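Request from the bench team (R.T.):
"We need a structural guess for the complex before ordering more flavin-adenine dinucleotide. Sequence and SMILES attached. Just send the tokens back."

Command: build protein-flavin-adenine dinucleotide structure.
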Amino acid sequence: MRPASTHDAIVIGAGPAGTSAALALARRGWTVAIVEKSVFPRRKVCGEYISASNLALLERLEIVDAWRAEAGPEIRRVGFFSGDTSVEAPMPRAKSVPATGDGFGRALGRDVLDSLLLDAARSAGADVFQPCRAVAIERNGVCQAVRIQAGARNSPDEATILRAPVIVAAHGSWEPGPLPSQLGKKGHPSDLLGFKAHFSGSTLPPDLMPLLTFPGGYGGMVLADHGRMSLSCCIRRDMLARLRGNLARKHGGQVSAAEAVEHHLRATCEGARKALQEASLDGPWLAAGPIRPGIRTGYDGDIFRVGNIAGESHPIIAEGISMALQSGWLLARELGTAGCGQAKREAVGRRYEAAWRELFSTRVLAAEAIARIAIGPGGGAMMRAVVRNFPQVLTMGARLSGKTRAAPGFG
Ligand SMILES: Cc1cc2nc3c(=O)[nH]c(=O)nc-3n(C[C@H](O)[C@H](O)[C@H](O)COP(=O)(O)OP(=O)(O)OC[C@H]3O[C@@H](n4cnc5c(N)ncnc54)[C@H](O)[C@@H]3O)c2cc1C
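Reply to R.T.: structure attached below.
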């Protein structure tokens, strides 16, 4: 006899993609399991800015009031800090926001946002397995079996098996692992490594979100919740190694990656240096990556993918949370009501992939082009010349990156 399913759907990962999919499915009457390896609340490498284009979706997920109560100030200006250049321009206002809405994005720490979303999914009836790591996905008759391990990575705890016809991979793209939906290891000099820290006491204007460019990378700054300024950036692996070597020779002894990154930012970007002048680190620097920008697949091997693992834009446009939230919602919309045989899953997979590409391809490609220029030789100088003379390109870039485009079904 075949073992019965434990759920209608199993979602692996409780970032914004996994929780929005789980929440939307649970509200449609699905029995959903969410498997998350980390204990929440947890900080995460992320700039934490969310475009106002998500407000209607957050309202539908019934977390918009909590989000508004917690998030930092409205971001009404987009900026550009590079070398000694600091330029600002208006942030375009998003259309189709809820009646009470404002049309401007805000930043909320991932420790707060992800907990908020997971609590909402739990309240909607999702079973949460946490801290539990999904370590294998196997076909098992009409169901698929997900093997999960409780506790820390190498804990000897016994594995549990969950079974469902629908499997949703929402585990992000930065960590290699044994699941068929996870990406392989990467180790090239041109890889981009992600860093992030919170600072308190920053003098960054509260309504301004500047893009930072510096030799070998790019980043961003924004005031988030509780007066915390979120500073995040990506830097080439080879540049980071060079910086660490130079600093170690200069000062003697080992220099951490985070020390090298912070030193580099302060030394090469005047706007960042000024914003950090009176600021103090609030918690440790975090590192992740390499990041894996690109368009991948939404459905393969009978596993649906949402968020970063379906496709990822360079964080230079700060749209990853939007794409995660919206892709989870999009998949749940295509899945509809519970009950999902293989033929239905394949049809849903095709429709979901087509909708994903329609909605996100432009911003992934735009982000790729901007990032290439920012990091490429002479790119910083070229960007400084263009932005100084035409500050309106910052507003245009924000529009092109999807900041005003409503989530699917909310336009
Ligand atoms: C430097 C930097 C700055 C950024 N700034 C912004 C920004 O300002 N705005 C923005 O919108 N986006 C930003 N992004 C992008 C954004 O962080 C990501 O796109 C977003 O987190 C993707 O969400 P996700 O749900 O797909 O994956 P994640 O947020 O990565 O969540 C995946 C979850 O899955 C869990 N998991 C992984 N493997 C397993 C497993 N085997 N079993 C169980 N659980 C597992 C993880 O613990 C994690 O909680 C930034 C990215 C970087 C690198």
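Two things stood out. Residues 2-183+292-400 form a domain with the FAD/NAD(P)-binding domain fold (CATH 3.50.50.60). The chain has one domain: 2-183+292-400.
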